[in-house]
Q: What sequence folds into this?
C-alpha cells in the first residue's frame, strides 16, 4: 500500500500522467516566453534603427564639439545593439517586422531633421526619455531569454541595458544643466545601474 492508502500500483500508474502534465506546462511557459522575447526583440531592433537615425541628425545639430562626439558614439552603440538583436532574432528563426522597420526609418530620419529646427533642449529631453525606456526593455528581454531557455543571451542583454543606462544618464545631465530644467517635469529616473544585474532573478 502507498502511504496515502492507495495501492502502490495506482501511485506508479499516476506518476507518468503527472509528469506529462508538468512537462506540458513547462513547454507552454517556454513557448510563451519565446513569443514575448521575439516580440520585444523586434521592437528593440526597429527602435535602434529609429534612434540611430535620430542621433545622426542630433549630432549634426549641436554646436559643442564634445557633445557632438558623445552623440556620435551613442549612435554607433545603437547600431551595434541593432546588430546584436538582429543576430538573436535570426537564431530564433524570426524576422524583423517590415512595417515597423519602415516606420522606424521614417521616424528616425524625421526626428534627426527636426533636431535642426527645435533647438538644443527638446532633442536632449526626448533622447533621455527614450533611453530610460530602453533600459527597461532590455531588462525584460533578459528575463524572457532566461524563461525561454536562452540563458546564453542574458549577459549580452543586460550589458545593452547598462549601456542604455549610461546614455540616459548623459542626456539627463545635459537637460539638468539647462537654465529651464527646473520648469520641466523630468521622466522618472531608472533605478541604480547596479540593480540591472539582478533584473532576471
A:
Amino acid at each position: 500500500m502507498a502511504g496515502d492508502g492507495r495501492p502502490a500500483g495506482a501511485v506508479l500508474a499516476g506518476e507518468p500522467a503527472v509528469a506529462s502534465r508538468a512537462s506540458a506546462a513547462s513547454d507552454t511557459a517556454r513557448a510563451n516566453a519565446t513569443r514575448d522575447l521575439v516580440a520585444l526583440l523586434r521592437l528593440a531592433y526597429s527602435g535602434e534603427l529609429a534612434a540611430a537615425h535620430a542621433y545622426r541628425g542630433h549630432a549634426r545639430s549641436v554646436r559643442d564639439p564634445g557633445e557632438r562626439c558623445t552623440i556620435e558614439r551613442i549612435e554607433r552603440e545603437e547600431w551595434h545593439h541593432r546588430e546584436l538583436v538582429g543576430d538573436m532574432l535570426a537564431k530564433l528563426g524570426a524576422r524583423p517586422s517590415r512595417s515597423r522597420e519602415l516606420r522606424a526609418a521614417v521616424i528616425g530620419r524625421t526626428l534627426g531633421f527636426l533636431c535642426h529646427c527645435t533647438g538644443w533642449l527638446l532633442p536632449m529631453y526626448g533622447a533621455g526619455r527614450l533611453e530610460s525606456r530602453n533600459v527597461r526593455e532590455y531588462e525584460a528581454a533578459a528575463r524572457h531569454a532566461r524563461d525561454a531557455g536562452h540563458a546564453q543571451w542574458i549577459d549580452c542583454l543586460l550589458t545593452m541595458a547598462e549601456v542604455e543606462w549610461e546614455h540616459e544618464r548623459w542626456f539627463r545631465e545635459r537637460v539638468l544643466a539647462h537654465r529651464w530644467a527646473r520648469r520641466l517635469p523630468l521622466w522618472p529616473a531608472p533605478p541604480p545601474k547596479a540593480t540591472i544585474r539582478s533584473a532576471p532573478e
User: Anything to note?
Assistant: The chain has a mean pLDDT of 87. Residues 160 and 200 are 14 Å apart (CA to CA). The two ends are 42 Å apart (CA to CA).
